[in-house]
Amino acid sequence: MHNGGSLWTLTVPTGGDTLRQERLTQDLHESLRRADDLVVGFHDADGPAEPGSKGTTMGEVALWAATTATVARPASQVVITLIKEWCAKERHRKVVVTVGDDSIEITGRPDTAQERMVREFQDRVAGDNVPASDDDAA
Asked: Which pTM was predicted?
């Protein structure tokens, strides 16, 4: 969490090519860090902090991204749009986006089914992070 926003894990799978993964992850980091209301950094190389938590495996490079906006839906749309644009630069690019226990793979050439799955993912992520309204507290 960062200022009430969602913490996202972003992994660029490359089929075991560590150098390519590092290069692509650095490029994705540079693309995302320019966005407003988004904080991006590299995951600790040691992997997940606790047993059973989702994270990177040894030798895998991953980013974390946190939205600083308190409204999850617009922030998730921004993150997903930036990742889609980055993936579209090369058709073989992929990013696995994980928020909590939910994840989705975004590719450089999405088909209709993947676009639907991404929208459903955004709905689930937004549903988990929407703050309760004042009316619910009464």
From this structure: 0.76
